[in-house]
Specification:
The chain has 7 helices and 35 strands. By secondary structure, the chain is mainly beta. Strand 3 and strand 4 form a beta hairpin.
């Protein structure tokens, strides 16, 4: 829902003739979202228990999946062939990402708001070198950063080294697997979210999830860093404007390129509609690791049917294909990776990278060549992490507690149909081949066959899914979370609410929406506390969040505002909880922040940012009006989670709170800030960033 609270005031005329399949709620009949709402909206908190699988691994023999359950704080081991029961190891934190050690006898697990890294033994290695699964047991648990988002492991002469993406600490951390001692750290921007090792483990690539530069300029994007582990040198890869939401990355088999899922926004366009990719494209960044340069942006969208919100990426072992899990449209997409890289390398320098977002739509497709995109829809919601083994691709369904499997069967010669049959008409969700087949309760893995897909002559994609737990029964809040992440609720499936509000926060970009005229971009706001702090939008145009949610469906996603879905989104947003600031000490304000609170009140910041939510919920003249603005008063946002939501002000002009005060002189134009001692200034900033 592009800028949920910044709404375009233009009619969605297409609604009268739009296909029903383009409306809200496109889901497999086996998805929890296709079921009726839970009748009781006031269920106790402990009733909302979902497996919520966040990551998984497939061992080298292909016998076992290791699954991280955020919902139950567990590591689970399940046999791929469905024999035996699921084995469970309880953890002290919510796991987010997993990684095998090189010998595959142990698994490293990171996650938890407070930042934990666990090492779990999962197998024994015999003298002959054979690996045999053993009872899972915790070997070590270390504290590391805040909400760590990924981990990689490097063999070293003195023992393995762990590399952790400290998401809310903004660091890459190197630490000993044996002791947990931190040896080096690197500053890698805002929200490092995914990483991996490259070129013989000599370099590591780290991708940030969201943009954090001043958003009122002509250029802003998330960052990708290449860190040389031998010299310690860090290089910044120059991406393109509004490359954002970098969710996952993987190396090509030769280790030369990093492939990173991405949403590329068109922030310089007026947001007058979404059709045809006017506001964004969904694709995969290809980065040359040795040169630390962007090679190309491989587009996943078809011209009139997009692939909103790509997440997991994985290569086939031979490097021929790339498989991508599309979180917003519930499908797996195959790209001809080897051919794409070859085509990109043959283009002239002036035409790459990123010369055209549709540059690969018309790759030669003679008999004997596969079409550019092969799309396999499942309809189970929230396909995120993905694993490829041979011709099989497995993707985790976060919201349906399941694994989806696509098996590619090739029988050349191939004959291509126009654009793979995806010119604006979405496929119906596949049905079971045998409707009497039991889906199982997750106690053992049981893949249920779905209708195969035949995108071209000579190509068959077999589809199946297996439950990791009983089919979820959704509370209203959970259904609202799914709708918020669902790109099938958008015209042509280009985006979902999270395209601008990842985790219901801000993407760090400015968007020029038509509710207040054109040519006056505004910062994307966090949805945290939106229902508690009316009015909504930077200019206060919407009276409250309920109005804004419903208008967002119509004017941003260009779909109907079905009341049951709008109510569910209300429930989801109104129950969001703030993440404690990484600057807190044992959950409390530091000594510096406590002093800063007194400064905050003494110099008058609390005259507008007051109460428990630090906002008076009124409009004020802030002196930050741009020349195209037709209003000069702006909403006072809550300061809760201000540490997480740069850039700041209505125009996103300042990357830091210090810049807001020292450069923008927000609220202190009379010299109050300048008259403070340096320590008082630091204490004030520490307080704001601790809320």
């Amino acid at each position: 829902m592009r800028n949920l609270l910044f709404l375009v005031a233009v009619p969605a005329l297409w609604l009268a003739t739009a296909s029903a399949a383009l409306g809200q709620g496109v889901a497999s009949p086996y998805s929890a979202k296709s079921q009726p709402f839970a009748e009781d909206r006031d269920e106790p908190e402990d009733a909302e228990r979902y497996l919520a699988p966040s990551d998984f691994l497939l061992d080298a023999p292909g016998d076992h999946f290791y699954v991280a359950s955020e919902g139950f704080s567990q590591l689970r081991r399940v046999r791929v062939d469905g024999t035996g029961e699921t084995e469970i190891l309880d953890l002290s934190f919510k796991p987010f990402k997993l990684r095998f050690f090189p010998d595959q006898t142990r698994v490293a697990i990171v996650g938890g708001i407070d930042g934990k890294l666990a090492i779990v033994e999962v197998a024994k290695k015999s003298e002959s070198g054979e690996t045999t699964p053993c009872e899972m047991r915790l070997i070590a648990e270390y504290s590391v950063g805040r909400s760590p988002a990924d981990v990689a492991i490097k063999a070293a002469p003195d023992g393995e080294l762990l590399y952790v993406a400290d998401r809310f600490g903004g660091r890459l951390v190197e630490m000993s697997a044996a002791s947990g001692e931190i040896s080096r750290t690197w500053d890698v921007g805002v929200e490092p979210f995914c990483l991996d090792l490259f070129l013989g483990d000599s370099k590591i690539v780290v991708a940030n999830r969201i943009a954090h530069r001043p958003a009122n300029k002509a250029f802003s994007c998330a960052d990708v860093y290449v860190v040389d582990l031998e010299s310690g040198e860090t290089k910044l890869v120059e991406l393109r404007n509004a490359d954002n939401l970098l969710q996952d990355l993987t190396p090509t088999p030769d280790g030369r390129y990093a492939l990173i899922s991405c949403v590329r926004g068109n922030t310089l366009h007026t947001a007058s509609g979404v059709s045809g990719g006017w506001l964004n494209a969904n694709g995969v960044l290809c980065v040359d690791v040795e040169k630390a340069e962007l090679v190309e942006f491989f587009v996943l969208d078809n011209a009139r049917l997009a692939a909103g919100n790509p997440w997991g990426v994985a290569c086939s072992e031979d490097g021929e294909r790339l498989a991508v899990a599309i979180a917003g449209t519930d499908e797996i997409i195959y790209l001809p990776l080897k051919r794409l890289i070859q085509t990109a390398s043959e283009r002239p320098d002036w035409a790459r990278p990123g010369y055209s977002p549709v540059a690969y739509s018309d790759l030669p497709a003679e008999d004997g060549e596969l079409p550019f995109r092969l799309r396999a829809l499942f309809g189970l919601k929230g396909l995120r992490q993905i694993v490829v083994r041979g011709n099989d691709a497995y993707a985790l369904s976060y919201f349906d507690d399941a694994i989806c499997k696509a098996s590619l069967k090739l029988n050349p010669p191939f004959k291509r149909f126009f654009d793979g049959g995806y010119e604006g008409i979405p496929e119906d969700p596949p049905k079971k081949l045998d409707e009497t087949e039991d889906e199982g309760d997750g106690s053992a893995l049981c893949f249920v066959a779905l209708e195969p897909k035949r995108p071209t002559d000579g190509v068959l994609i077999e589809r199946s899914f297996a439950r990791l737990a009983p089919k979820p029964v959704l509370t209203t809040r959970r259904r609202g979370e799914i709708v918020f992440h669902d790109a099938t609720a958008c015209l042509e499936h280009w985006m979902s609410c999270v395209s601008c509000h990842p985790d219901a926060r801000s993407d760090g970009l400015n968007w020029d929406l038509l509710n207040d005229g054109s040519g006056n971009s505004k910062s994307s706001k966090s949805m945290l506390l939106a229902h508690e702090t009316p009015p909504c939008l930077v200019s206060g145009i919407r009276s409250d969040a309920e109005v804004a949610v419903r208008a967002g469906f119509v004017h941003i996603l260009e779909t109907t505002a079905e009341e049951e879905n709008a109510l569910a989104v209300d429930e989801y947003l109104s129950t969001l909880k703030p993440v404690p600031s990484p600057r807190l000490v044992d959950g409390e304000l530091s000594e510096s922040a406590r002093r800063g609170k007194g400064v905050f009140e003494r110099i008058g910041c609390s005259s507008c940012h007051n109460g428990e939510l630090y906002t008076d919920m009124r409009l004020h003249r802030t002196g930050s009006q741009d020349y195209n603005d037709n209003v000069d008063k702006f909403d006072v946002p809550t300061l809760i989670e201000a540490w997480r939501t740069p850039p700041y002000m209505n125009n996103g002009a300042y990357s830091t709170i210090r810049d807001v005060l020292e450069v923008g002189r927000h609220g202190v134009k009379d010299g109050r800030y300048e008259r403070l001692e340096k320590q008082e200034q630091d204490d004030l900033i520490e307080f704001v960033l601790s809320l």
